[in-house]
Design brief:
Elements (H helix, E strand, L loop, with lengths): L1 H27 L3 H14 L4 H13 L3 H14 L4 H17 L2 H21 L4 H13 L8 H14 L1 H14 L3 H14 L3 H13 L3 H15 L3 H13 L3 H13 L9 H14 L3 H14 L4 H11 L2
Helix pairs in contact: 1-2, 1-3, 2-3, 3-4, 4-5, 5-6, 6-7, 7-8, 7-9, 8-9, 9-10, 10-11, 11-12, 12-13, 13-14, 13-15, 14-15, 15-16, 16-17
Length: about 325
């Protein structure tokens, strides 16, 4: 009888896993609507499959359907109250909903967000994502409803104990948020020296851009490019040169290199590189070249309003 039951249920199990695998594939291709339809049917007939429910919640999250995501994650928390990751996802969906509603409505949600993250942290002393969430939450909340730089640092220190790079980045974030750019720079540099990931370099570049320090941003991008050998860095350097009207020859060279070596994995469409080149030539007062490149950007992405606005500025030269 056991063998008969095995062969009766095996096709169902295989089909179930096949559905989840197909949903994962659809998610990787950003076909969220089709994945949602697939998992809606799957979850209805497999109501005890927590993996399926979690994936269903994830799909809603990808589409910013926070109420629907919350419903799915709440099911997971109720069924496995000692699973830290479920509490983390539940709190994350609640937090995103809080950001999407009025401040008055958000006040009624924040307590549940905090409780979910704190529970996740309590259940798993090594859960890095939860501690990052708490660092950001305590910094962003006003003091009157529980915001606290001291508490944010508590979780940044816990992050540092788990991962020095995450700890340094978290402290850089705290100081940047608190408008202490010199201390933020110090910790972002520590993260680069210890880890050197693209994320570390990007955090420091963003800080320099925010503080209107283009020369430092360019130097950091060049260091990142040397370490990681990514064509995307050429666009980023060109963008800073164009926006801040500095090192224009270097920006021109980097953007032309970006265009020559472009592939889909670089992320930023070539039309944006054309736009940055147009800005550089505008800054150089080379009207003919500027018009040439801005026209190419408009042909590439005709719906982008900023390209057309830029063309009007160039025509006034």
């Amino acid at each position: 009888m056991r063998y008969l039951l095995y062969f009766l249920f095996f096709p169902v199990l295989a089909f179930g896993q096949s559905s989840l695998d197909e949903a994962q594939t659809l998610i990787s291709k950003k076909n969220f609507k089709k994945a949602e339809q697939l998992l809606s049917a799957y979850v209805q007939t497999n109501q005890n499959d927590l993996e399926g429910i979690e994936l269903y919640g994830d799909i809603y999250g990808h589409q910013k359907k926070w109420d629907d995501a919350i419903i799915q994650y709440e099911k997971l928390v109720e069924r496995q109250p000692n699973n830290a990751n479920y509490h983390y996802k539940y709190g994350g969906a609640l937090g995103m909903k809080a950001l999407s509603v009025s401040k008055f409505k958000a006040l009624g949600i924040i307590g549940d967000v905090k409780d979910a993250f704190l529970k996740a942290a309590e259940l798993d002393s090594k859960h890095i994502d939860t501690r990052w969430a708490l660092v950001e939450l305590y910094m962003q909340l006003p003091g009157i409803i529980g915001g606290s730089k001291r508490k944010s640092f508590k979780y940044a220190n816990e992050l540092e104990a788990l991962s020095k790079v995450d700890g340094y980045l978290a402290k850089g974030y705290i100081y940047e948020y608190d408008d202490e750019p010199e201390l933020a720079e110090k910790f972002y540099k520590m993260a680069i020296n210890f880890g050197g990931s693209l994320t570390c370099y990007n955090k420091l570049t963003s800080l320099y851009e925010k503080e209107k320090q283009p020369e430092k941003a360019i130097s950091n991008l060049e260091a990142s490019g040397e370490k990681h050998q990514r064509n995307a860095m050429n666009y980023q350097i060109g963008k800073v040169c164009a926006e801040y009207n500095v090192q224009l020859n270097k920006g021109e060279k980097c953007l032309l290199t970006y265009i020559d070596n472009y592939s889909a994995k670089d992320g930023v469409p070539k039309a944006w590189a054309y736009y940055r080149l147009a800005q550089i030539y505008k800054n150089k007062k080379h009207k003919i070249n500027a018009l040439k490149w801005i026209d190419k950007s408009i042909v590439g992405l005709p719906e982008i309003k900023v390209f057309k606005d830029e063309k009007r500025q160039i025509e006034k030269l």
